[in-house]
Amino acid sequence: MQYRCPQCQSQKVMPIAQAGNTTRPDVPKSLMILVFSIFLLLLLVISNIAMWIFSKGAGTNLQIATAVVFAITAISGVLFWRDLPNFKISMQAFMQSQKVWKCRDCNHQWQI
Ligand SMILES: [Zn+2]
User: Fold this and answer.
1) Where are the bilayer-spanning segments (predicted)?
2) Per-residue model confidence as pLDDT tens digits over 74-103
3) Which candidate, 21, 3, 2, places its Cα nearest to that of 104?
4) From the CA of 15, how far away is ligand 1's center (Å)?
5) How close is the Cα of 98 to the center of ligand 1, in Å?
6) Ligand 1 centre from 52 Cα, in Å?
7) Cα of 93 from ligand 1 centre, angstroms
8) What angle do CA 8, 13, 15 make, to 5 degrees?
9) Residues 6+ away with beta carbon under 8 Å from 45
């Protein structure tokens, strides 16, 4: 199994969706929660810092919210870590089910 362009040896290749091929990687819910909570945590941390700079400190509600979101991020991180082996297998199965590939460097298309 090679994920390189046969023409220019670039690794920037991507599968092309084909009609009838509905195989999708099984993305665990914990990953979606993790990505979402990291994004939320980042927003809260930024607003905490902004509050510290522009006023007398972050409000209690904001601090509680940050702590809660941090806990959610930590829990979903652990859950995702447990889902990771299955996710890897599912991603590999997805990659192997893709037959038509395209190179993003030279636009070469080929079939496996
Ligand atoms: Zn190429």
Assistant:
1) 31-54, 60-81
2) 999 999 999 999 999 998 888 888 889 999
3) 3
4) 13
5) 17
6) 50
7) 23
8) 135
9) 66
Residue tagged 């091929």 (tokens): 21
Intra-chain end-to-end CA distance of the chain, in Å = 9
Ion ligand 1 neighbours (CB, 5 A) are 5, 7-8, 10, 103, 105-106, 108
**77 burial class (0-12, 13-18, 19+ CB within 10 angstroms)?**
middle
Strand order in the sheet with 100-103: 13-15, 100-103, 109-111
Reported as type and span, the H/E element at residue 69 is helix 60-97
Residue spans per domain, the chain: 27-97
What is the value of pTM for the model shown? 0.70
CA-wise closest residue to 99 among 24, 15, 25: 15
Q: Which tens digits make up the pLDDT trace of 28-80? A: 999 999 999 999 999 999 998 988 888 877 688 888 999 999 999 999 999 99
